[in-house]
């Protein structure tokens, strides 16, 4: 008896519902899912995943960074390995699907392969990364950095809000942090890394498509801009003589908005503003704001940055305001492998779906895994583009579509010589 794609999709839905129960908060109370690295909730979800993996005939292991890895073995013991996975952790009061869907869907894939006696010339390792969000330790991409071999031991000294170090938390979880370097994969043993993730945006829904292919993971930079004016009485200083820092901030916000709307593949936001002295009848003397720019093309982002800082300088000089500027964070974009992106596009077409290629405006484990191997990503439609929120939602039938794309992707990889 064969297993249908609908059955695999329905099982994925049931697993996702069950996984959402392992949370500090409860979705039934509209508080979303909160699951942090190396906590009781993390342990319980890994126990459930282990049970589901073993029921599929997979071998299961926990590495020293608390990544859970289940292997669907090839008929060839010396075969290379296709890594597929995502993160188990969430933001506080997050949704059911960000991260976890990318762990569950490859299990549904394995279920379908086994149910239909489909053999592959490579192993499939399904990975539940321990920590991508960095919610507990600010240890962003912990799990994937370990597998990629770029983990920095200094990260083990980071602490959570209770002062517990990452090292101590991993030890309490049953890991040996001193052995983390041994958990890396070697490039020679890996075919590629695939991640399936909710889109976290509205483009697929607007296009009425269940899935889309990711071309790149965005580059990000953040800035702090501090604008200096002069405080004064709001009722006595003439408007023409004022040096209002908050007025300068408004102009900066306008410049960011215009630049991002007029520049292809660029998005940005002024997300944080602090104003001083912050009195109702005092002209603002100092306004500090954040600027974030994102683009899948580093040259676009860097060119936009240069232009923006120049424009800010001109605008604030006109207002007789001074400013200081600091680049506080920068992360380069990562391009998905062209051959793997093409393979995913072809697999989407195999399913009778129009392939839409789009870039990811959010970071993912692929940022770290790209240091190990070629990466590819498949997006699944999410309702109204909402993510990192309890109302995060997907359509059950889209899970079936994603499983089908994964099946065709694996079959196309099996026919590819060489595999990478």
Q: Quick gist of this model?
A:
With 420 residues, this protein is of the alpha/beta class. It contains eleven helices and 14 strands.
Strand content: 15-25%
Mean pLDDT score: 95
Total E-strand runs: 14
The SS-based structural class is alpha/beta
Main beta sheet strand tally, sense and closure: 9 strands, mixed
Count of discrete alpha- or pi-helical segments spanning 4 or more residues: 11
CATH topology of the largest domain: Aminopeptidase
Overall 3D form: elongated
What's the architecture of the largest domain in CATH terms? 3-Layer(aba) Sandwich
Helix content: 25-40%
Poorly predicted residue ranges: none
Number of domains: 2
Report the order of strands and helices.
Answer: HHEEEHEHHEHEEHEEEHEEHEHEH
Protein name: Allantoate amidohydrolase
Family: Belongs to the peptidase M20 family.
Organism: Billgrantia zhangzhouensis
Cofactor: Mn(2+)
């Amino acid at each position: 008896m064969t297993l249908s794609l609908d059955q695999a999709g329905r099982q994925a839905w049931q697993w996702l519902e069950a996984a959402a129960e392992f949370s500090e908060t409860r979705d039934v109370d509209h508080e979303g899912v909160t699951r942090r690295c190396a906590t009781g909730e993390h342990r319980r979800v890994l126990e459930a995943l282990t049970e589901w993996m073993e029921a599929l005939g997979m071998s299961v292991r926990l590495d020293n960074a608390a990544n859970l890895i289940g292997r669907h073995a090839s008929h060839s013991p010396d075969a290379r390995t296709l890594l597929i996975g995502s993160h188990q952790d969430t933001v506080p009061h997050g949704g059911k699907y960000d991260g976890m869907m990318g762990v569950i869907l490859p299990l549904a894939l394995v279920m379908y392969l086994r149910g239909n006696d489909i053999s592959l010339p490579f192993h499939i390792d399904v990975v539940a990364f321990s920590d991508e969000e960095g919610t507990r330790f600010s240890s962003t991409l912990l799990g994937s950095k370990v597998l990629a071999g770029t983990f920095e031991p200094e990260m083990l000294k980071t602490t959570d809000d209770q002062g517990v170090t990452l090292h101590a938390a991993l030890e309490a979880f049953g890991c040996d942090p001193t052995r983390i370097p041994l958990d890396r994969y070697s490039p020679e043993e890996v075919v590629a890394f695939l991640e399936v993730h909710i889109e976290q945006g509205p483009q697929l829904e607007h296009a009425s498509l269940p899935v889309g292919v990711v071309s790149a993971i965005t580059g990000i930079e953040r800035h702090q801009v501090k604008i200096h004016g002069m405080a004064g009485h709001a009722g006595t200083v003439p408007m023409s003589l004022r040096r209002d820092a908050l007025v300068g901030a408004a102009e900066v916000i306008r410049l960011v908005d215009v630049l991002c709307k007029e520049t292809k593949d660029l998005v940005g936001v002024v997300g944080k503003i602090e104003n001083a002295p912050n009195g109702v009848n005092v002209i603002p003397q100092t306004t500090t704001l954040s600027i974030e720019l994102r683009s899948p093309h580093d040259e676009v982002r860097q060119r936009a940055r240069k232009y923006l800082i120049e424009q800010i300088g001109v605008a604030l000089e006109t207002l007789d305001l001074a400013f200081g500027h600091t680049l506080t964070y920068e992360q380069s974009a990562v391009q998905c492998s062209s051959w793997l992106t093409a393979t995913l596009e072809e697999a989407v077409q195999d399913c009778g779906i129009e392939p839409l290629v789009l870039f990811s405006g959010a970071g993912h484990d692929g940022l770290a895994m790209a240091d190990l191997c070629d990466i590819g990503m498949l997006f699944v439609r999410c309702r109204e583009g909402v993510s990192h929120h309890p109302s995060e939602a997907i359509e059950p039938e889209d899970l079936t579509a994603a499983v089908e794309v994964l099946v065709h992707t694996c079959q196309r990889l099996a026919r590819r010589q060489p595999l990478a």
